[in-house]
Write a structure and sequence with these properties.
This protein is of the alpha+beta class. The protein has 13 helices and five strands.
């Protein structure tokens, strides 16, 4: 992401068009509508009412067409897709509106008193200047209406200077005002362009910061996921999906400490697959891996209490950590596990114990005290496991 320090010219131009239509639409159209109403009120006594109504209808129709065009251009965002076309359409609308007022003045002036001429001129001034702030985002748009409305009127006063005592002065002042509006409009126009540019930079910076924040949030989430995956890889056996020896050592020590603090019981079951090496030699290591995966599923079904942990301790050895379980509960779990393994009925033709896979289990239940550590508890369970093997396997021995 690269932050742009300056608004591109094409985007600045589009923003000017949008501002003129968004803000100037209501201001300029409303001012012209009020002007039409005021003209009707001023001249109905001097101009045939039919002429006035037709003129008012024509002006209203022009204003309606301009409103409709600007509304559609805003909704469809034509100012971004076809800015030049919108630009010239806006200038044409402003010019036609200005010419409507100047032509109306030229046609009505000979038919009304001098005082009414001056009131009408003041009205046109007000209509034009009311839209000054709203339309100067696009200076040409304002100047098109200004000069189309007032420049012909100024020259009309100069040409007809003998018809009124102040015509020469009014014409000269009108033309001077039109000339003065050039530098004034340029200053206001430059200020508005600067304001658009500053707002654009702020919005761009806000978007960039928001994108950067979202990117950092995504990166942090990815890092957390990666750390979690690394933790899982470090604590999970790849073959069976159970915990590994690293996890056992950590969890077992935590449970020893917890049982020591609470004065509770802790049981541990260490089991080994009977005659697993002959199974591998006969059926192959791939079949042996499948057996270990099946046994992992069986052991997960054997534990039913919250907090109990099943892990692969190494090779064909598995371990069950049973927090809060006394010897009786642990024996029930071990027996349930032994039965579930037999019910799987995994064929083992080389086993002298049974025609299917069996397991031997060493069980230890203690209430930890003193300096007992995880290794001591595993060693006691291992001794019980060897005794189970010595006693003919497919057995459970309590250490």
């Amino acid at each position: 992401m690269i932050y742009q320090r300056h608004i591109p010219n094409e985007e600045l131009f589009a923003s000017q068009l949008e501002m003129v239509m968004q803000n100037g639409r209501a201001a300029s159209i409303a001012a012209n509508v009020l002007g039409v109403a005021a003209a009707l009120a001023l001249f109905w006594q001097f101009i045939p009412i039919l002429w006035l109504v037709l003129w008012a209808f024509g002006v209203s129709l022009l204003l309606l067409v301009r409103w409709h065009y600007m509304s559609n251009a805003l909704v469809a965002r034509h100012y971004q897709q076809h800015p030049a076309r919108v630009y010239w359409a806006l200038l044409l609308g402003a010019t036609l509106t200005g010419l409507v007022w100047s032509s109306a003045f030229v046609l009505m002036a000979p038919r009304v008193p001098d005082s009414m001429q001056q009131v009408f001129l003041l009205l046109i001034f007000m209509i034009t200047l009311l839209s000054l702030g709203a339309t100067l985002a696009l200076r040409e748009y304002f100047l098109a209406q200004l000069y189309a409305a007032l420049w012909p009127i100024g020259w009309w006063y100069l040409v007809h200077y003998w018809e009124g005592p102040f015509n020469l002065l009014i014409g000269f002042v009108t033309l001077v005002i039109c000339a003065l509006m050039l530098p004034v409009s340029e200053r206001v126009h430059a200020s508005i362009r600067s304001l658009i540019s500053v707002n654009w930079q702020r919005e761009t910076m806000s978007r960039e910061l928001a994108d950067l924040t979202n990117s950092l949030r995504d990166r942090n989430r990815q890092l957390r996921d990666a750390r979690r995956q690394l933790t899982d890889l470090a604590n999970v056996d790849e073959l069976t999906g159970l915990g590994n020896r690293r996890l056992v050592n950590r969890v077992l020590q935590e449970e020893i400490n917890r049982a020591r603090r609470n004065g509770g019981m802790l049981s541990l079951i260490l089991l080994d697959v009977d005659y697993f090496k002959p199974y591998n030699d006969t059926y192959g290591h791939l079949a042996g891996d499948q057996v270990l995966q099946q046994l992992a599923d069986v052991m997960q079904r054997a534990v039913t209490r919250a907090g109990e942990v099943v892990a692969r301790y190494g090779g064909e050895e598995f371990i069950l950590i049973l927090p809060g379980a006394d010897q009786e509960i642990a024996l029930r779990t071990a027996e349930r596990l032994r039965q579930l393994v037999i019910e799987e009925h995994i064929p083992h033709g080389e086993s002298p114990v049974a025609p299917c896979i069996t397991v031997s289990q060493g069980l230890v239940s203690i209430s930890p005290d003193g300096d007992l550590v995880s290794g001591d508890l595993v060693r006691l369970a291992d001794q019980a496991l060897y005794r189970a093997k010595d006693e003919g396997r497919n057995a459970i021995v309590v250490g």
